[in-house]
């Protein structure tokens, strides 16, 4: 049975979030097209995960660079690195990933960056080779649904956008295949056009969901 992980990073809730409304359209369509695929939702603003603090950074360094064993770590270090590994262990079990985020201050909410940090574990999600790092999550597919207040595409602001760009770089590094992102921009520029902008984005999300499901039903 195929499995899909639906990851959101918006504290507003669907009633106030334009992005979550678009994401729900994707998920509803996907579930209809691939009813046997198991779906799990994660709200990163209400999700228990390790944070990259001094203890976790120390634990990673000891294990990766200084030859420490897990039992030799300090209690706090060990607890946090084990939580990190548990998240990565779960993440690799999925076949499909849907990320739904807003663009905040040129990037994604910090909870998404921290979530991605938890996935970068050598030997689990990528490996070092003589030719450089190689992703280990081949055969998996992800899509990013993103909302933007401003207009970036085709403007001088485009090169400053680092939310969608970073997520794609990180997922490709891990070996995950990417579908074209569903991006809707200009909500702050055209506040009176929100309804039609959301509707258009939902339609694009539904099309993307059908494309993803077309692969999901073959697993």
Task: Summarize the structure in short.
This protein has 219 residues and is α/β, with parallel strands linked by helices.
Number of domains: 1
Q: What is the total tally of β strands?
A: 8
What is the architecture at the second tier of CATH? 3-Layer(aba) Sandwich
CATH topology: Rossmann fold
**Rg (C-alpha, Å):** 18 Å
CATH uppermost class: Alpha Beta
Question: What report would you give on this structure?
Answer:
By secondary structure, the protein is of the alpha/beta class. The protein has a single domain (3-216), classed as Flavodoxin domain (Rossmann fold). 40% of the residues lie in helices and 19% in strands. It is built from 6 helices and 8 strands. It has helices at 18-33, 54-65, 75-91, 110-117, 163-173, 194-216, and strands spanning 3-8, 38-43, 96-102, 126-129, 132-135, 141-148, 177-178, 182-185. α2 (54-65) crosses α3. The radius of gyration is 18 Å and the shape is globular. The model has no long low-confidence stretch (mean pLDDT 96).
């Amino acid at each position: 049975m195929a499995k899909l992980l639906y990851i959101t990073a918006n504290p507003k809730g669907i009633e106030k979030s334009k992005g979550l409304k678009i994401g729900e359209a994707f998920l509803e369509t996907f579930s209809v097209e691939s009813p046997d695929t198991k779906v799990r939702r994660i709200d990163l603003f209400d999700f228990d995960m390790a944070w990259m603090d001094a203890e976790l950074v120390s634990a990673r360094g000891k294990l990766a660079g200084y030859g420490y064993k897990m039992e030799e770590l300090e209690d706090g270090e060990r607890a946090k690195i084990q939580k990190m590994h548990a998240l990565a262990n779960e993440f690799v079990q999925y076949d499909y990933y849907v990320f739904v985020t807003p663009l905040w201050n040129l990037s994604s909410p910090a909870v998404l960056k921290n979530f991605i940090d938890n996935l970068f574990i050598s030997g689990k999600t990528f490996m070092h080779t003589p030719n450089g790092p190689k992703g280990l999550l081949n055969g998996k597919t992800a899509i990013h649904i993103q909302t933007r207040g401003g207009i970036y595409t085709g403007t001088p602001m485009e090169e400053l956008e680092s939310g969608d760009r970073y997520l794609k770089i990180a997922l490709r590094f891990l070996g995950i295949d990417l579908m074209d992102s569903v991006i809707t921009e200009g909500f702050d520029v055209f506040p009176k056009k929100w309804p039609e902008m959301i509707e258009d984005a939902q339609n694009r999300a539904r099309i993307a969901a059908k494309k993803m499901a077309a692969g999901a039903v073959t697993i």
